Task: structure prediction
Amino acid sequence: VIMEFFTTVENHKAKLQSPVFTSVTRQNGEKLIVVNFDPVVFQLIRESKVLERNRIKLLKPAETVLIQEDKYKRYFNELNEVIGEYYKVRSKIRSILTKLMQPHLKAFEYKLKPGFYEITWTSLKIESFIKQIKEDLIELSELIFNSNDLIESRIEKNIKAISQEVLVTFPETEGKAIQLEDFVQMQRSKIENKITDLKSKNI
Result:
């Protein structure tokens, strides 16, 4: 039984040479990025600890995986956090900005590409890769937040303000007629003042 366990460890240790990312396809055809880690590895680590407590000498593959336990868990959690946050941030894009943001989303996903081919769980570059995509995600998040804020705080509020403005007013003339040219000039001045007011709110 123990030899079967060590054989299983050897087989699953080889899976640590797999890329850290893969993709799955939903029923609607949408592809999702997921972290590519075999959960059996953690189970084997737990079983290795049991053997170690019972003073059963571990073979080199099991011993190596056990020593690296904290590192693999940290990589797994950090990569899951990045992907989870990416989809969370992406879901917050306002519909009016969807098309505008597509190039930025594609650019970020392009930066994830090494995780599909080159970066494995034992790669020497994995830590710098995780650090870089975290920084890239922060930049993307700030871009989306600021763009949403621009739409909400500037454009939508100004449209609402315009819709509530009375742009045509009839002056009190105490029964006296007012010339058309004077009336047009009064309305033009009023509109220009409102435009200046709206522009000042966008500074």
